[in-house]
Amino acid sequence: MTEDMSRYPLRLEGDDVPMVRFRNVTKRYGPLVVLNQLDLDVSTGEMVTIIGPSGSGKTTVLRMLMTLETIDSGVIYVDGEPLTHMERNGQLLPASSKHIRRIRSKIGMCFQHFNLFPHMTALGNCMEGLVQVLGLSRREAEERSMELLDMVGLAEKRDEHPSRLSGGQQQRVAIARALAMRPKVMLFDEVTSALDPEVISEVTNVIRRLVGAHDLTMLMVTHQMGFAKEISDRVCFFFNGAVEEQGTPAKLFENPERERTRQFLNAVLDAN
Amino acid sequence: MTYIEFLQVHGSRMADGTVLTVVQFLLATVVAVVVAVLFGLMRLSRNPGVRGVATVYIEIFRGTSLLVQLFWIFFVLPLFGLNLDKFVAGFLAVGLNMGAYGAELVRGAIRAVPRGQWEAAVALNMTDRKRMWRVILPQALVIMLPPWGNLVIEILKGTALVALISVADLMFEVRQINIATFLSVQAFGTALIVYYVLARFLVTPFMRALERFMSRKIGRA
Ligand SMILES: Nc1ncnc2c1ncn2[C@@H]1O[C@H](COP(=O)(O)OP(=O)(O)OP(=O)(O)O)[C@@H](O)[C@H]1O
Ligand SMILES: [Mg+2]
Questions:
Q1: Could you give the ipTM of this predicted complex?
Q2: Structural domains of chain B ordered from first start
Q3: A122, A159 Cβ separation under 8 angstroms
Q4: Do A117 and B120 touch (CB under 8 A)?
Q5: Contact at 8 Å (CB) between A261 and A237?
Q6: d(Cα A265, Cα A254) in Å, to the nearest integer?
């Protein structure tokens, strides 16, 4: 693949630099084109929700931003700087791992299956990145972790291992763990999909509070249309690896323009 | 001569041999663990050269006989200027051989740690090294302990071969006694029992306890 990189800016400048920008991003698995020349901007402090049918590439978008997947063409920018590439002598080259680590420090992610470290307590999970990555002292790390465990309502579970926590509790610890690193961008990939219905609100309540309290940019994939409608600044409907339609929740849910959006929303509503 | 009398006459000699067997076993195990972790990690390296070295090592040590390797290390290496004491050559050969098997256990266990754990470590922006040592290896350890229980028994049994380069272990002493007395049943019968007792009542319970301890530590129990 030899893409002409000169058409992409080395960095984003100006008044309204988005916190996240996907520019012409394509992702393939063998012959399967999962994302097709995706363009997507997320402004600082914005909460954007991605909805769409299974296999439309929603998770892939988040995973590329978290650098869990590489991209095949295009550029992803975070906070004005390229994430997937770096500037060398006025050219964009594929990013070194050092460059990726620097930009990646601005991003945090929560997963569908929590992915807590089973050999560490709730507190240990939160402290791990602070001590091992940010280099905080154990005391500072514990203090900051306890603030966040307190925020997610789990201060008294600090010494429990994940195996002794419910799914909802584990997911809240995972959110605390990610937030403790003070990312500028938080990614949520179906964080309630693996939960029993009665504990979903434990987790959505935490996310609700983040929308109010933090100057945090959020990108969330969800199948909970009600929640998406309630908390999003903008909703993107994905279809076949591209944004088919996007807009405010009111517009997208009440008044979709595209036939595919309508079909999808009807199917989801029927299912509920 | 009753068996009791046999033990009275030859018991202390066999006890000395048993001590040496245990020492050889412990040292061989240490070598095997170091080799296993080293080559297991190398097998997973992104660098094809590093991977290749590990693959060749594992192929050679698993593909040829331990006895031949032992003789190589003790009789052939000196021809290339590397003289090893028979005691060192003994546990080294057993450890290097069993470590090749252990490397595959390490590799398999690392790969059995769920993907989500690797991804969570990336999301926390850990370096590759910290991810391996702090997140992946502790969990891999719990996964690989049960098969290591078998391998450690193999190491114990493997040490019996060091008698063939005249390390005075249990097997060596028993053979000497047999040559001197022709009491084969008593001599080799005792060896059989001692190896069995060591394996069944010392090594296995220890490995089980270690398994239980580790899975408690990891919070899965
Ligand atoms: N590692 C992979 N190898 C091959 N194909 C993959 C891989 N990961 C994802 N895919 C494919 O890419 C497509 C998009 O996957 P993705 O996980 O982004 O979908 P999604 O929109 O999140 O779906 P869902 O709602 O089911 O989670 C799917 O067809 C999937 O099968
Ligand atoms: Mg998905």
A1: 0.94
A2: 3-217 (1.10.3720.10)
A3: yes
A4: yes
A5: yes
A6: 10
**pLDDT tens for residues B197-206?**
999 999 999 9
Q: What is the pLDDT of residue B32?
A: 98
Each residue of A47-79: pLDDT tens digit?
A: 999 999 999 999 999 999 999 999 999 999 999
Strands A85-88 and A91-94: antiparallel
Residue recorded with tokens 């010494």: A159
Q: Give CA–CA dist A168/A205, Å, rounded.
A: 11
Calculate how close chain A gets to B221, using CA atoms only, in Å. 8
Rounded Cα distance, B69 and B57, in Å: 12
Tell me the CB-side half-sphere exposure of residue A194, using CA atoms within 13 A. 17
Q: Using CA coordinates, name the residue in chain A closest to B117.
A: A115
Give the tokens for residue B60: 């050679």
> Across A156-250, where does the E strand assignment appear?
185-189, 217-221, 234-239, 242-247
Is pLDDT larger for residue B116 or for residue B166?
Answer: B116
- Contact flag A68-B130 (C-beta cutoff 8 Å): no
In the structure, what pLDDT confidence band is assigned to residue B221 with cuts at 50, 70 and 90?
A: very low
Q: How far is CA A181 from CA A38, A125, A218, B213, in A?
A: 28, 12, 15, 31
* pLDDT computed for residue A268 by the predictor: 87
Of A101, A117, A164, the CB nearest to B135: A117
Q: Report whether A115 contacts A189 (CB < 8 A).
A: no
Tokens of A56: 């439309």
Whether residue B116 and residue A181 make contact (CB cut-off 8 A), yes or no, is: no
